[in-house]
Amino acid sequence: MKAALSWRRHRLLLQRVLDAPDCITTSEAVVQLCTAIGSGVLPRATPRWWMRRRTGGTWEDVRVCDDATDDYFREKLRMSRRVFMEITEACAPHLQRQVTFYREPLQPDQIVAYTLYRWATGESYDNSTSSFGIGRASGVRVVRDVTAALLRVYGDKISWPTGVRKHVVLRAFQDKGFPNCHGAVDCTHIYVDKPANALNENYFDRKHCFSVVAQVVVDLNLRVLDVFVGYPGSCHDIRVIQLSSLSRRAEEGTLFRGPPVTLLGGVRTNGYILGDNGYPPSEWIVVPYGGINQHPDQERFDNKQKVARGAVERAFGRLKGMWRLLLRSHKTNLDTLPQQFTAVCILHNILLDAGIEFDENLLWEVDENGVRRRVDLGIHRPPQPVTMLTSTDAAHALRNALAERLKHI
């Protein structure tokens, strides 16, 4: 009955347009007709051939709410349904889309789910979008929008520790034998396909792959405290840290705030982070002694320092193991890759806060020959320790004082 009335109204409106004696009446009739269509009184037009029909696939599977599919949900999106809903709700105001005449817009939950799926599986846009019933162009736009929303809503998830959190970080490193240590730093390479609009040799790293460098500082709980990403793969770790705000803040004296700590021999330190031999010794980066035929004190220090510094490698394992797009070479926009990597680091911290466990099996893969092997985390170790004239007596005095302290632990 209702359908018949709607169709009758449709015919009357069309008849008014045809019978209108002047342009004013015609305009009024057209306005009424458009209003009726927009309000849903009349059926929407059938989508044109160029409008891709949406199907079910992975998106329909993860929407099922039962215990049997919870593991499937975690496998595909790397988090519990509760955490996913919290992220979606927080980002939704920045993801709402306008209703159009031809199609209902993608909803925030589908938008967020697709982005997480793309980052988690590393599938290409062509393959991953079909699993969510959306077009490739929509997939590219969705990832861009979710990235921006995460940076806007959760930007404070990556921050240098202060207050109670700073006390927890310092205490954890002190228990490892490194008082007043604020974190561990290292770089990882994000492998990309050959850049189309950039100098290829700049992105060609020493493993003969195209990559972008990401510098990350973490605490002993694997939490990301600082991230700096975007320089080409040929850029050395030393150059990257010199270009980062981390170096500038350390030199300005704003990176480490709080009372200095006095070590054995009267050596005072305002704070420092741990690094590998890819960095030169400095007053704010403590690196191993390195070399061969070490003194037992130096060997003990290097072993202890490696254990504490290993937090950053474990963080890369968790981050890249969960979000496998960062593990393998992929086609990407070099302008938006830094924002996407930072957004993934934000998710990394969110999942740590939520207590989401990491599946160690994600650190392994099967190669084309069927051999199981560890994944390549993109950590490029220096072929030999870096020695630079910029290393100061104060830098060596700090390391020696820490080594002396470790003798008594």
UniProtKB/TrEMBL annotation:
It comes from the Eukaryota. Residues 185-349 form the DDE Tnp4 domain. GO terms for molecular function: hydrolase activity; metal ion binding; nuclease activity. Coiled coil: none annotated. Pfam families: DDE_Tnp_4. Its cofactor is a divalent metal cation. It is found in: Nucleus. InterPro entries: HARBI1-like, HARBI1_dom. Keywords: Hydrolase, Metal-binding, Nuclease, Nucleus. This is DDE Tnp4 domain-containing protein.
